Amino acid sequence: MAIRIQKITLKLQIRLKRQVAACYRGKEFRPTAVAIIYVRGIGSPFEYLTVTSVREPHEYFGNHGPPKGGVGIRENILKALFREIKEEVGIDRSQLVLEGYCGTAGVKSSSNKGGFPKKKYFFFLLRYTGYLNLTIQESEISGYKWILDNRIRPYLRSLKARRVTKYRALIKVYRSVTRHLKAQSCATRKEKE
């Protein structure tokens, strides 16, 4: 089943604020903002940004995925999203276009940070408009890669054995986002013709 990319509206932001608050009340899920960042490559392919975390426990060292981070108890989820992107890869908010919200997924936490046994991922789609060379924060991540749209799912599948629920959720989101972006690209080309 495909994920619908939702426009960021005030109504959606209120709903997300309530979901984040519910995470803290329940003490089961740590709310985590996840940035699915893409850039249009030369021609028509898209490339997605992935990072390698250094903050995971030893057994998961080298944990790969999109930039992400925890949302504070009274923090606006979009502010948390942009804060984490800036902290991890040095991308300023002015270089990003927030295109939509892609849904949530619950995954087991590898760190149990803050006493939460699980994380609730809140996925957001963003288009990057800056240069491909990034300045990473080595205290946050050890590296990054831009991966072509047709290589992202195989790349994540190769990592899936270590953290099945996390990578299954990421594969589902990337599949839907890629379909959305390709459909959008085709519609734009038809408008120009």
Describe the structure.
The chain is α+β, with helices and mostly antiparallel strands and 193 residues long. The protein has a single domain (10-185), classed as Nucleoside Triphosphate Pyrophosphohydrolase (Alpha-Beta Complex). The chain has 4 helices and 7 strands. It has helices at residues 10-26, 77-89, 149-159, 164-192, and strands at residues 29-40, 46-53, 64-65, 68-70, 96-108, 118-128, 141-148. Strands 1, 2, 3, 4, 5, 6 and 7 form a 7-stranded mixed beta sheet that branches. Helix 3 (149-159) packs antiparallel against helix 4. The longest helix is centred in the C-terminal third of the chain and has 29 residues, at 164-192. The radius of gyration is 16 Å and the shape is globular. The model is unreliable at 57-61 (pLDDT under 50).
First-last Cα distance:
31 Å
> What is the overall pLDDT average?
83
Q: What ranges have pLDDT less than 50 throughout 5 or more consecutive residues?
A: 57-61
CATH superfamily: Nucleoside Triphosphate Pyrophosphohydrolase
- Please give the CATH class: Alpha Beta
- How many independent structural domains? 1
What is the CATH third-level topology name? Nucleoside Triphosphate Pyrophosphohydrolase
What order do the helices and strands come in, and which of them pair?
Blueprint: H1 10-26, E1 29-40, E2 46-53, E3 64-65, E4 68-70, H2 77-89, E5 96-108, E6 118-128, E7 141-148, H3 149-159, H4 164-192
Parallel strand pairs: 1-6
Antiparallel strand pairs: 1-2, 1-4, 2-3, 2-7, 5-6
Helix pairs in contact: 3-4
